[in-house]
Amino acid sequence: MRTFLAYFQNLRFKQKLFISYMVVSIIPVVVLGMFSYHQASSFLLQQAKQNLDGAISQIAETINYRAKQHEAIINSITQNVVFKRIFISNDGDFPVLYRDYVDPFFSNILDFNRDILQISVFTENQSILRGEYILPLSLTSDLKWANQRTQSKETQWNIKNGKLFATRPFVSEEEAQLGKAPAVLFLSIDADSLFQSLDDIKTNAYGILILDRDGHQILSKNMHMRDELPITSLPSAQLKERIGSFTMQGADYMYITADMAEPGWKLVYFTPKNGISVDAKSIVSATALIVLVCLAGLLLIIWMFSNTFVKRIIKLNKKMMIVENGNLKIDVSSQSRDEIGQLTNRFGNMLVNINTLIEEVYQSKITQKEAELKALQTQINPHFLYNTLSIINWKALEIDAMEISQITNTVSRFYRTVLNKGRDFIPVRNELENAKDYMHIQSIMHNYRFDFICEVDEALLRYDMINLIFQPILENALEHGIDKLRKGSARGCITLRGYRSGDDLEFCIEDNGPGMSQEMAVEVIQRNSVGYGLKNVHDRIQIRFGQSYGLRIESALGHRTRVFLNFPVYTAEEISRADSE
């Protein structure tokens, strides 16, 4: 994202304007196109579902009609008086009835109904068994309906080994409960012929179930489904809606159900939701065409506007380039009152003001340089100070005033180190000597009322540091620490410690004064607090070495104060080399 923004920032204004117009224009067109596509797709999907629902309902009616035909055949046999006399009452001359009535009737049914593969009557009456039309009931012992003690007078549809068959028991005129049926009509039906209309479904992958009244599976058909689903294990409550959905084996499916009243079946069609395809090519083509037409019109409009809009900016930019090359005397003005005209006129006014200021500043600089020269001429030469101190020292030795001589030499060394020939860096050794001389002078001024302890690792003496760092901190320790001690309290003590920590030099100046609040400890470093001057030391270190270095104060009211300072290990040669690079 940052790379793109950087690239965009470096583009010419005309290109930015062009891209901005294009983005602002394309977004609503694309959003409207996507919305239209979504709405049209939803509409087509709903239409597809309705068409599919109509097809399934039509198929269910076709199967229901064929089931009615088979039901009519079953009724014509089980309700026939002659057949009841034979199979229930066992009345009449059976050989004659079979020859003249049963055999021709069953043969005609098979001849005119090619989808009926077998028609038989299973009975317990062994005396009337004949060929394939009348068979012993014992042959059906492995069938479900044969093991039921009480048989319903309704037709039962069953499937076994992939074959569909219908059964109905013969009942008496009084419809008395006969216990185990003495005779049962059996029709074996060609399932492919009965359900051939299922092949009219044109979806890519789907499954079909035919369920009976009890929810038992009569037929299962799987067309191009990836996995065989245990659809019958679904709770029947999930299949009660006309059109619904269910989830199985991690996939979402849509189903459509249709009832077949005559056989009491339910047709269940199911297919993966992602398998219902919608042909949206026409929508995509229309949307793309609209977008292209809009873009063509927008390109023309953008070209016209950008040329008109950017032309004056290019002209102003050329004049700015002339000014950049040093020519400040050109005339820049515009008669236009829009923002670009205002910008042009203000740039022209700015050039006029710059030319005026150049003249004024040039004169003021000359005056300033003259004043500085005079001020330098009046400054005291440091050598005059050193010579004066040498004379005082010589006079003190003449009168044998050794303490005056010592003080004079100490002051001389102190200022010689402070001035440091104008250099900003000084060896740690010299800065420590300067600190000791300063504290010696202060000790004399304070009538030797405090102790000064210096504990610095010898290894630190070979490095360099910024000049005049310790003196302001020691001065604060005296003024705000030692001088604040009550009379009769402990003797004042200031300790200067130095050690190396990794690649840094760290120093700590500690006094046993009354301390300060933590708020004051933060303030004296962050602000130019009157009487402290520690912010200047802190800023000098950070300007040279960065924000991770500087001063840090630890103190509390009624306790001693510690001032920590740190900076990296370096020598003046390294600093000089880094500055030159």
Automatic annotation (TrEMBL):
The keyword Repressor does not apply. The keyword Iron does not apply. GO terms for molecular function: phosphorelay sensor kinase activity. Coiled coil: none annotated. One of its GO terms (cellular component) is plasma membrane. It is a multi-pass membrane protein. Keywords: Cell membrane, Kinase, Membrane, Phosphoprotein, Transferase, Transmembrane, Transmembrane helix. The chain crosses the membrane at residues 18-37, 283-310. It is found in: Cell membrane. It comes from the Bacteria. Residues 307-359 form the HAMP domain. PANTHER family: SENSOR HISTIDINE KINASE YPDA. This is Two-component sensor histidine kinase. It comes from Paenibacillus oryzisoli.
